[in-house]
Design goal:
mainly alpha, 0% strand
Length: 173
């Protein structure tokens, strides 16, 4: 359908959905223990297949090549950053996060930019490089005018620094 219509964003979204399922296959209600219908049972979460996810994300990137879909390209870059971090390739992860942030900034997508910032913080935490003061910056992020629903979660939680601070030492003031 998307291919016949020449819909690069639709094609890319389809590949991103497939990649997301491969990267986080346990994200369905059933695997989270939520029974949706009488007689339904919980199922064990399958293992992620990061190779399959990478293939799908690269297909999405290829579908977007030559298009002017910066937000969609930034979304693919963010997913590639996640996979780079999972594989321990932190330099590539930093590069992909920078590309994603640049893409979101170019189109004025504050919520996307904030999402990249949170992913960068999570990457920093994983490497043990979390910067003091980040929870205060997160609190300011939630005070913007764009995409209040997404920003509020970050901003409201960051007003409680102990929720973001996980290094085992006292939360920054």
């Amino acid at each position: 359908m998307h291919t016949d219509a020449g819909d690069a964003i639709g094609i890319a979204n389809t590949w991103m959905f497939e990649g997301d399922w491969s990267a986080a296959p346990g994200s369905s209600p059933e695997t989270l223990g939520l029974v949706l219908a009488d007689g339904a049972t919980s199922v064990a979460a399958p293992e992620p297949d990061y190779g399959k996810a990478m293939h799908a994300y690269l297909q999405a990137a290829q579908a977007l090549a030559g298009s002017d879909a910066r937000s969609a390209t930034a979304a693919v870059d963010l997913r590639l950053a996640f996979l780079a971090g999972r594989s321990g390739n932190f330099e590539t992860q930093r590069e992909q996060l920078a590309l994603s942030e640049r893409g979101y900034r170019e189109v004025g997508d504050a919520a996307g930019t904030h999402l990249v910032t949170v992913h960068r913080w999570l990457a920093d935490l994983a490497r043990g490089d979390f910067i003091a003061g980040a929870p205060r910056r997160a609190a300011r992020m939630g005070q913007g005018t764009r995409s209040r629903r997404r920003d509020c979660g970050v901003g409201c939680n960051a007003r409680k620094p102990h929720l973001l601070h996980r290094s085992g030492t006292a939360a920054p003031a």
